[in-house]
């Protein structure tokens, strides 16, 4: 049976500018730094996604580009403001040849997705720039609760 690895990455810290549309908010300098650190942590874990599904917002695209610069990044409009069940439906549409998939999105959807897939109680949150790695056996079309392999947050260091 094939092991599938899902990386769920929340966008890094973004600016709050009055009048700027939410989708257009860019990363702060700290956010850029943390996105690079997330990428370094993933590289250190020898995790290189075959495909990245990314929300169309500026901050998620910047996070994906900084954390996963060599990956195939696909902008997926359905990730923006998605509920966990909608995110899981997108994940389940992934092609069989994709072994490691990254999803770059927003809270609360990504955090609730991670909670649902790993059945963690007393979770400490999912701050900007954090990621979780989840493994499950089988095909993406059947992807469901798996084992949480690791979590990383810029606040951990």
TrEMBL record:
UniProt-recorded Gene Ontology molecular function terms: hydrolase activity
Keyword DNA-binding: no
Keywords, ordered alphabetically: Hydrolase
Matching Gene3D superfamilies: Phosphoglycerate mutase-like
CDD domains tied to this protein: HP_PGM_like
Source taxon at top rank: Bacteria
Record EC number: 3.1.3.-
InterPro entries (alphabetical): His_Pase_superF_clade-1 (IPR013078), His_PPase_superfam (IPR029033)
Pfam family name, one: His_Phos_1
Record has Hydrolase as a keyword: yes
Name under which the protein is recorded: Phosphohistidine phosphatase
